[in-house]
Amino acid sequence: MQQSYFVHKKRAAVLRNTDSMMRRLLEVEVTRGRAAELSEKELTDLTVQVTELFLQDNACLDVDLHEPLYILGDIFGQYGDLLHIFEELGFPPQTRYLLLGNYVDRGHNSIEVLAFLFIYKMKFPNHIYMLRGNHECEFVSCQYGFLGECNKRYSKHLWRVFMNAFDCLPAVAIVENCILCVHSGLIPCLEKFSLTSLAKLRLFIMDLIRRPVSLTNNFLLTQLTWSEPSIDSRGWSRNPVGLGLNFGENVVDTFCQIFDLQMVIRGHDLLEKGYEFSANDRLLTIFTAPNMSGQFHNLGALVHLYRTSESPVEICGQIKVIKPSSKLTRGLCFYQPLVIEDSLSSRYVDQNAHFKQTHDFSKLSKTERRKNGTNILSVTK
Asked: In this protein, which residues make up the domain named Serine/threonine specific protein phosphatases (predicted)?
């Protein structure tokens, strides 16, 4: 009883401090790249509390569309871009978000990205959901910048606090029982596990991913965060990266048929146009961070899902493309504002069809998609 009182008191104190932390995160200089003035104790206390919230979410999330939902792919420490997206689309609780992982590394402001998302998770836990990406682990984040950022600004201890939080992140989200959202891959050897329904899939994921869990020590989590689609191929094959597997387009079709899913939405791959459909349009890959690391001239993309109000109810999906603004900016010269525009890829989902087109989106063949610049860009994972 006494212990529960002190836990509640601690959480309330952290929650009260989130407004002060957010004010510092929203300072103009911080949005343009300067480090936010947040203490290590504040970040530690916030992360410890939000870790408990991650554990209250199932490893396999169920997300409905009683309110519209925005799905974001990789952010990679680009805090200014993440903030601009929220400014354009709305902050929780007015807007709901599902993020597919890879919050840290590569960019210079991974700590700000995490602090921003963790604060909103603390304040509005049912309006922001975070999945685990392959960079949310010790093995990768110690090589691609996040450990270095923590060491330079704070300490290795803070990095370990973040790693503990990552070990508790959910792995998969299922939207309205018809769209699977995951960082990267699918589950091999379905026939061996006798998975024949969505209910069994949920139980299987929650049984095998018991958090906290190290990513590299969990077979299923490794597949979900590392395995990748292989265009124009069939079946499963070795992933040359060394972790996870490659899966062919027929694997996506089979997976969707078994679990009565309309499609799969994933992140993980850097794309020139920010998104790509494959596997007979049952697989949608999105990458949200535009101009990644300032080294790639890629657009970003995100997905807007919502239900229609008329009967029969339909699930609509629209891709929004993120690109740098052509307007001149004031202040720090390296910050470039963004423009978020609707793509022509606006479709709906119902019980009989997957993401059907609703206006002038014309299906492109694989050859045409490559010709129009939706190729995967070469980047080390």
From this structure: 131-136
